[in-house]
Amino acid sequence: MRKQDNLEKLNIPHSRPTVGPAEAKAVSDVIGSGYMAEGDMVKQFEAAFAKFLGLEYATSTNSGTSGLHLTMLAMGIGKGDEVIIPSYVCSALLNAVNYTGANPILADIDPDTYNLDVVDVQRHINNRTKAIIVPHLFGLAADLDAILRLDVPIIEDCAQSVGGVYQERPVGTIGMASIYSFYATKVISTGEGGMVATSSRALAEEIRDLKKYDKRAAYKVRFNYKMNDIQAALGIVQLKALESFILRRRDIAERYHKAFNSFSLMLPPSDAGHIYFRYVLGLPMDAGPWIRELARMGITCARPIHHPLHQYLKLGGYQATDKAWKQSLSIPIYPTLTDDEINNVIESVTFCCEKFC
């Protein structure tokens, strides 16, 4: 158990970027070149990302949300259509569907994985359903085979799972398209930024057309969703380091598994393809007291989803999502955690287990 006189010395954030001298040099080189808009570095990053996934096409954007918006537009999704998304997810998905004019249809989650509940998804499908957005939440691949059997186009949301694996295939290579976020604290980071990947030439060309908004022969509504060369330079360096990032995350997760296995907690699934973007504990009670107690000890933890979408929309009937929101706790897990910090997280969470469980 941690000594009380050490508590004031700790300040371990819930998340932080993994960047260093290589990223600083890459950015400096772009600035020194005098060209900082979308240019050769963006093309290099797109090519490297497509090669990493083994797909033909990757198109950069200024955020994952932008990439999702463009993907749905390129699929012809619009007013009167329906798109199924989980309630237990970041509000970016809700925003992107609303941008298209389509109707977002919320589905519940599997309480064991936090990913989409396929049975509940099936219940919502009708002739207006044009797509299912499938997040691989917290780094764990969703049950794609079961969702594919529903015979509705899938957009994989890989914002938290780049580098993850589903049945020996990279996540992001199975649906019609996949979208990625490179926000500051994501698996790899360009500060802000995103990517859309697909094996469909027609889809990729339409997405690129929608993103190239100026100096066109004919007008239609297009979008200023471009990534710049500074961001792309960061992305190239980060992508090269991705394997080491994931190995470190898995190592930390294994230490957490061993430390917390004896307590009355639901631990993340020990799946070989899991990259542990988040390490989420299922608690026997509301997470609020744990968050406050851990903060007092210098460990910043959080509910992994700020608010489920059905709560924003004042809808009922999402029991698994409600329980997950109330009783789930995300604790720090990222490559730059030191061994001392990991030990402090373990000791602090153990203290809470002994106090609350």
If you had to describe this structure to a student in words, what would you say it looks like?
The two termini are 15 Å apart. By secondary structure, this protein is an alpha/beta fold. The protein is globular and about 70 Å long. Residues 1-7 have low confidence and may be disordered. It has helices at residues 21-33, 40-53, 64-74, 92-100, 118-124, 144-148, 201-211, 229-260, 288-296, 309-312, 319-327, 339-356, and strands at residues 57-61, 82-86, 103-107, 129-135, 154-157, 165-166, 169-170, 177-181, 194-198, 279-282, 328-331. The chain is built from twelve helices and eleven strands. Helices cover 40% and strands 13% of the residues. β6 and β7 form a beta hairpin. It folds into two domains: 21-237, 3-Layer(aba) Sandwich (Aspartate Aminotransferase, domain 2); 242-356, Alpha-Beta Complex (Aspartate Aminotransferase, domain 1), CATH 3.90.1150. 46% of the residues are buried. α8 (229-260) crosses α12 (339-356). A seven-stranded mixed sheet has the order 1-9-8-5-4-2-3, with helices on both faces.
